[in-house]
């Protein structure tokens, strides 16, 4: 069974631009979560989607948005990029949302904002 | 607010030794789920072990075990007979609220020395 895939793996953008990251969950998984990982802050929860609906949202500005498609693939978008948005963005999928469900992580997209 | 705290940013131990990683958390919920995830250098994050709060018995997975102290809100990870492949960043995490948002600690970087 293929694991969680994220594209692109690396991205370099400049301030003010916008970016779209993609995540394909493990087949059959309906929940997709996004995290921002930085050395200083660790993993911070961005949002979670389940069956095309945003189920949870973290404390990030409205510049961060996401969506999930009927095939459970998910995208996140960051508009008006800031230097502080440079981070590793991780996507994780699970069979169902919450509880004891194991999250399976993708390799991440490393975003650098210049 | 729910929080997860890992007080050891970095640790080093000799191969074959036993090491314990600390984690404390805060929640007002009575039933919740706790996890330890491992992120090897340049590799994907994987689940090491999980614990359900209503189960008094400590979870064990081969060389990995936890010491779950519910009253003290402590959830430490013990790695026995440590191996070079255990070198990684370890994150303590919890699903401790009704909206199932998973909160991660800032991580402990563990080095296993030959």
Quick gist of this model?
The complex is a heterodimer of chains A (114) and B (114). By secondary structure, chain A is mainly beta.
List the topology elements.
The complex is a heterodimer of chains A (114) and B (114).
Chain A lengths: L4 E3 L2 E4 L5 E6 L6 E8 L3 E9 L2 E5 L6 E5 L5 E5 L8 E8 L9 E2 L3 E5 L1
Chain B lengths: L2 E3 L4 E5 L4 E3 L2 E3 L6 E7 L6 E7 L7 E2 L2 E6 L4 E6 L8 E8 L6 E3 L3 E6 L1
Parallel strand pairs in B: 2-12
Antiparallel strand pairs in B: 1-4, 3-9, 5-6, 5-10, 7-8, 8-9, 10-11, 10-12
Describe it for me?
The complex is a heterodimer of chains A (114) and B (114). Chain A contains no helices and eleven strands. Chain A has strands at residues 5-7, 10-13, 19-24, 31-38, 42-50, 53-57, 64-68, 74-78, 87-94, 104-105, 109-113. The model of chain A has no long low-confidence stretch (mean pLDDT 93). With 114 residues, chain B is mainly beta. Helix content of chain B is 0%, strand content 52%. Chain B has strands at residues 3-5, 10-14, 19-21, 24-26, 33-39, 46-52, 60-61, 64-69, 74-79, 88-95, 102-104, 108-113. The termini of chain B are far apart. The A-B interface holds A 3-4, 33, 35, 41-45, 48, 55-56, 58, 90, 92, 97-100, 102-103, 105-108 and B 33, 35, 37, 43-47, 50, 52, 91, 93, 95, 99-107.
């Amino acid at each position: 069974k293929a694991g969680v895939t994220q594209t692109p793996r690396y991205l370099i953008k400049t301030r003010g631009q916008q970016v779209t990251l993609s995540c394909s969950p493990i087949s059959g998984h309906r929940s997709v979560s996004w995290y921002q990982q930085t050395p200083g802050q660790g993993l911070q929860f961005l949002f979670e989607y389940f069956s095309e609906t945003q189920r949870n949202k973290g404390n990030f500005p409205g510049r961060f948005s996401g969506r999930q498609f009927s095939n459970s693939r998910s995208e996140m978008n960051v508009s008006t990029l800031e230097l502080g948005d440079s981070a590793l963005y991780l996507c994780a999928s699970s069979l169902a949302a919450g509880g004891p469900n194991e999250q399976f992580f993708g390799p991440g997209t490393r975003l650098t904002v210049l | 607010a729910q929080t997860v705290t890992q007080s050891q940013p970095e640790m080093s131990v000799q191969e074959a030794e036993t090491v314990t990683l600390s984690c404390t958390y805060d929640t007002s919920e009575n039933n919740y789920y706790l996890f330890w995830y491992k992120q090897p250098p340049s590799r994907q994050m994987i689940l090491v072990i999980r614990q359900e709060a209503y189960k008094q018995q400590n979870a064990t997975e081969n060389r990995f075990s936890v010491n779950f102290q519910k009253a003290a809100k402590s959830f430490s990870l013990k790695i026995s007979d440590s191996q070079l492949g255990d070198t990684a960043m370890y994150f303590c995490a919890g699903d401790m609220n009704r909206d199932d948002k998973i909160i991660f600690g800032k991580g402990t970087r563990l080095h296993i020395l030959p």
